[in-house]
Every structure is written in structure tokens, then in C-alpha cells.
Amino acid sequence: MAFADDNTLWIGSLLCTQGERYHQGATSNLGCLTMFNTSTNSVTMIDSYKGDASGIAAVTTLHKIYSAEGGQVYIYNTVDGSSLDNSQVTVTGTAYDVAYMDAASDDDNTTY
User: Fold this and answer.
1) CATH architecture group of domain 2-84
2) Which of 15, 23, 48, 111 is the most exposed place for a label (fewest CB within 10 A)?
3) pLDDT in tens for each of the 112 residues of the chain?
4) How far is CA 2 from the centre of its chain?
């Protein structure tokens, strides 16, 4: 879990295709990543199944999070949970976790 911009709490899960909801046939929009908006108490299931959501990193003040899902890195907007372009993110091997490192004095915050 990670708190992010726009009053959102991001929750990742493992083995989400082995749960009760999956076995009852509720497979539409069955991803392993969920966004909960703490100000509106609304839940947004993020995309379709990509694999286990094993890592989440909030990129504060840029309104996005990075997630490790199914061994790849994905980027989402914290305003509405939409996918952002991750074509500049290259993973060699399998990503199990993500981390965001930046300093307050760094003027080169990437915007992709």
C-alpha cells in the first residue's frame, strides 16, 4: 500500500486470480492494483490483470505512481487512475518492486 497525491491510497495484491471473486466468475476488470480515494470513499480497479502487483511507489507532487505488476513497471495518474506512457521505462529481468528517488534540489523532474 502507498498513499499518493490527490488523496489516493494504492493497494497491490498477490495471487488475485486465486481469490473467491475470481472463482465466482467476476473476472471483468480483475486487476491486482486498486486505487481508493480517501476523500470520496470511491474504489477504482486499475486495468485488467497484468500479474501480481508486488510494488508501488508514489511520485509525490507529480500526481503519479509507479507499480510493479507481472514483472514490468507501469505508471498511473493519481487523479483518475489512468495509465501513463511507460515507453521510457526499460526493465531488464523481472521487476518485483519499485522505488522513487529524488531530491528537493533536483530541477530535472521527468514528466513522462
Assistant:
1) Beta Barrel (2.40)
2) 111
3) 999 999 999 999 888 777 776 677 665 567 889 999 999 999 988 877 888 999 999 998 899 999 999 999 999 999 999 999 988 888 899 999 998 876 565 565 555 5
4) 9
- Give me the residue label for grid cell 531530491: 103
**Closest by Cα among 77, 89, 97, 84 to 35:** 77
pTM reported for the whole predicted model: 0.83
State the cell numbers at 56. 508501488
52, 70 Cβ separation under 8 angstroms = yes
CB-based contact 76:8 (threshold 8 Å): no
Per the CB < 8 A criterion, the answer to whether 64 and 112 are in contact is no
Residue that the C-alpha cell 514490468 belongs to = 72
